[in-house]
Amino acid sequence: MSSSTIVVDDRIDAYLLKQGRPESETAAALREATAPMPAAVMQVSPLQGAFMSWLVGFMNVENALEVGTFTGYSALCVAEALPDHGKLIACDVSEEWTSMAREYWERGGVAHKIDLQLRPAAETLDSLISEEREGSFDFAFIDADKPNYDVYYERCLQLLRVGGVVAVDNVLWTGRVADERFNDESTLAIRALNKKIQNDDRVNNVMLPIGDGLTLATRL
Ligand code: CA
Predict the structure, then answer these.
(1) How far is the CA of 144 from the centre of ligand 1 (A)?
(2) Which residue, 5, 10, 125, 195, is most buried by CB atoms nearer than 10 A?
């Protein structure tokens, strides 16, 4: 099948890391520190971090949002690509995970660009909307609890400027979205959002097999 995507085995993955966009020392150290954690699978891959970092630079992003921060790897990659006056509002509910994130943001010299909001993300997004920040963000990354994905997507679209990009993570959900035997709450939520975005005339969208699947949607 000529339309297929290359299967990225360990050897190719290692080559991508070695020969692709350089990863900062701090990002590599954070990735290594996160790896032994039971929830490490929640971290974005180095390739995805590199892609998001490139995208944020390419778009000249100044104001960014992140829904779901975990130990801070994706936020670090985004913040490294922001200008010095740029700002990333990072939403998470875990003090434990984000304390590790803060440590590495400090170490990487990007802590001043990140505003961590430790409360349910929907509350943070709603308060930004009520502070009249609608249409003022260039980029949003959604990577939190899947049953609330639609809530995050709708709020982020409100907050994005025209031409701004929302990136939605885990849209392939290790393939479960494409397997009708899986009908748990998270799978159903992602499947429904994928269907909605496909025909959403408010955005120009593409779904890519990066990491666990990444949808990019530009606000029209
Ligand atoms: Ca994820």
Answers:
(1) 7
(2) 125
- Identify whether the C-beta of residue 35 lies closer than 8 Å to the C-beta of residue 70: no
How is residue 190 written in tokens? 């992602």
81 CA to middle of ligand 1, Å? 20
Q: What pLDDT, on the 0 to 100 scale, is given for residue 76?
A: 98
Query: 43: CA distance to ligand 1 center in Å?
Result: 6
Q: What's the whole-number mean pLDDT along residues 121-140?
A: 98
Q: Which pLDDT value is given to residue 4? A: 86
Q: How far is the CA of 198 from the centre of ligand 1 (A)?
A: 20
What distance in Å separates the CA atoms of residue 55 and residue 3, rounded to the nearest whole number? 25
CA distance 128 to 33: 32
Q: Report the distance separating Cα 77 and Cα 142, nearest Å.
A: 15
From the list 21, 35, 17, 36, the residue with the least C-alpha distance to 73 is: 35
CB 173, CB 184: distance < 8 Å: no
Quick one: DSSP state of residue 71? T
Strand 203-208 to 214-219 pairing: antiparallel
Residue 2 pLDDT class (50, 70, 90 cuts): low
Rounded to the nearest whole angstrom, what is the distance from the C-alpha of residue 143 to the centroid of ligand 1? Answer: 5
CA of residue 203 to ligand 1 center, whole Å:
22
Å from CA of 42 to ligand 1 middle? 5
Q: How far apart are CA 161 and CA 123, in angstroms?
A: 20
Strand-strand pairing, 214-219 and 160-169? antiparallel
